[in-house]
TrEMBL record:
This is FACT complex subunit SSRP1. Residues 558-626 bind DNA. The lineage of its organism: Eukaryota, Viridiplantae, Streptophyta, Embryophyta, Tracheophyta. Belongs to the SSRP1 family. It is found in: Nucleus; Chromosome. One of its GO terms (biological process) is DNA replication.
Amino acid sequence: MTDGHLFNNILLGGRGGTNPGQLKVHAGGIAWRKQGGGKIIDVDKADIARVTWMKVPRAYQLGVRLKDGLFYKFIGFREQDVSNLTNYIQKNIGLTPEEKQLSVTGHNWGEIDINGNMLTFLVGSKQAFEVSLADVAQTQLQGKTDVYMEFHVDDTTGATEKDSLMDLSFHIPTSNTQFVGDENRPPAQVFLDKIVSLADVGSSEEPFLTFEGIAILTPRGRHSVELHLSFMRLQGLANDFKIQYASIVRLFLLPKSNQPHTFVVITLDPPIRKGQTLYPHIVIQFETEYVVEKNLLLSEELLSTRFKDRLEPSYKGLIHEVFIKTLRGISGAKVTRPGSFRSCQDGYAVKSSLKAEDGLLYPLEKGFFFLPKPPTLILHDEIDFVEFERHGAGGSSVSSHYFDLLVKLKNDQEHLFRNIQRNEYHNLFEFIKAKGMKILNLGGSQTTNGVAAALHDDDDDAVDPHLERIKNAAGDESDEEDEDFVVEKDDGGSPTDDSGEEESDASESGEEKKSSIKDSKKEATGVKAPSAKGKSRDGDEEGSKKRKPKRKKDPNAPKRAMSGFMFFSNAERENLKKGNPGMSFTDVGRALGERWKKMTAEEKEPYESMARADTKRYREAMADYKSGGPSTTTNMDSGESE
């Protein structure tokens, strides 16, 4: 195959942690992507030093060793993959994969092979196990013949595993010929010195840089952030997290719009755990104008060799810039900053809410990031479509100033960002359009004017997806009986809204409102019932404390016009019920809504035509009704049953 081979595999972590993903072996090297997004490994063929095969339980393992000492292991290959992939690697990468055998005898006496940062224990010529020396936290000599190793116990690597390797001990007799010593320096000491030189043991005990009293929003609390050579520690009063730098996928530096704070987000894979909660993003808040001066407690040798061109001896500047530069230098993670998007106030984000939490939505060059809680990162290539929606909650005075943004992912997951100010619409729409994302609009048009008209359309025939969903969930009766759900302007309220601003069809025609026998009795005794025209706003506010009785609909009033979606629903609802006898009203409405969204403009045209005709009928009938219709008082009184 000229484009390479693609496999579903599991990447083995340093101490046995497993990550399912997809491996691609191509002419330029090897690439691996974690399932569901996240960690990515891309290895150029020029950096590969050695490739090995090993038979493991129920599968084959591919080992890839790099020239800088790193070693990756991938399992999940079938027997037929081995020969095909071996030939491909020989032809395109120029290396011949070696076959390694696994020892399953259970012997604990053998030889040690150290290659790069990997320590392999061999029984005969077969591998019993291997560990990464980068995972060694500390080691010491016990007696004259035993070397004890303790491994990192952090909150990321192996966080989802039931078991983790904690410590390991090797016995190296004085007669050992592999690590030759003398009377003052036994073989065990020679082996210990070798481990220390490769694992940087001891140098990571004290941090080389500390930031005190940092406000961390997720997980919440004030912590001291300590940067060690092999890990980062977040130390607080109640929690203490250790994070390996290899778990840091990306860093985000995002200023808060018109506020004296800046977000720094550390994205982790795997995440840290607090109780049963996983945190893939650490959200830190810095004071934007706070200046610090920091000296790194590192030797000149380390700075000139291991961290050459990555770290400087000292830093002076804004605290978030110093933090980002040092963390990037030690971890190698890339930094994402705000892109081309600007809000109407020249900020980098728009105010929004997600899952009842207020925050900021950052439109970035490769994704959207909602902060601070819950921190939600959505990559552009994960998005199926976005949809601008009229605000569905609150009175009409509120909804006309806000809109919602629905983001539908390819895995059918949805994120609804609510309460975005109307004046942010144009910049947000232009940004999304420039990124080539599919936009579903209320008005069905892919133009700016079309979306704006959909957001602010107050006509009776405008299709509101939330309103239509409510109607369909209620079944066939919703078309006539449940008219309290139908609001003339901008989803002006709910049936239980006591604000006094919602009016029925009769009150819209300018006629008096009488909604109960009690009101009729008041009129009979000389107390005049208030009318819709005569009642002031102040009177509404004073009366809002008492629940208003439900107003009855004038039976002589014309039936409201139906939308194209409702004509479609009436035509297809029975067919859908017959094909799915057990489907509930709610599921029927949801299924019809999904089908309507996927229909083309040509497919919708017959129903839209019927809707236009029905709108014309309604307006003409309403004009006749207003000019010569029967009075509300007579109709409501005659309709009383008590």
